[in-house]
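DM between two lab members

TW: hey, do you still have the BAIAP2 isoform 18 entry open?
JB: yeah, one sec
JB: this one, 234 aa:
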Amino acid sequence: MGELASESQGSKELGDVLFQMAEVHRQIQNQLEEMLKSFHNELLTQLEQKVELDSRYLSAALKKYQTEQRSKGDALDKCQAELKKLRKKSQGSKNPQKYSDKELQYIDAISNKQGELENYVSDGYKTALTEERRRFCFLVEKQCAVAKNSAAYHSKGKELLAQKLPLWQQACADPSKIPERAVQLMQQVASNGATLPSALSASKSNLVISDPIPGAKPLPVPPELAPFVGRMSA
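TW: and the structure you got?
JB:
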């Protein structure tokens, strides 16, 4: 359509506008493709890789944590069982005083192991929350990268359209206004009595304007061409 308009003396500047529109939309489309590539590369691909790697890492970390927790819990249970046995011996003994030192040692050991287990569970909970937060931070960070590219896409499109749109609107503001060059051509034709070439007769597509449809109403004549209508028909 831009080529057809560019070959017309009356619509050449509109052909230029159509070419500009096509180029601007091509640039916007390229920006859109870059944004979609960013969404795929920055987010989807890395997220898939991250999920696969983290699934193995966190499963191994959880298994290690559970094994260590069970080991510390078993050690605590063993000390408590030994203390219980010792107290039974102490209660059935004629001289329970001789078990007091041993009992104190077990109580101290139980206290230490209990503290170790509680600290281990606390540290494990903190580690779990940290690992969880890292994953969500990773996701938000990648989304920010995608959002940044999205903002660039919209900003570029807005910039291109804001520069061109007023000129495009100005070009089509008055459809009835005939360019000066076309009026001059009309004057030359009218004064020389030559045949006015069709505006689209030289088109690459070899378009031929058909004869008027019988009974069809004539199109309104622009004011610039009104003086020549009578002479041309004559």
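TW: got it. The chain has five helices and no strands. The chain has one domain: 1-173.
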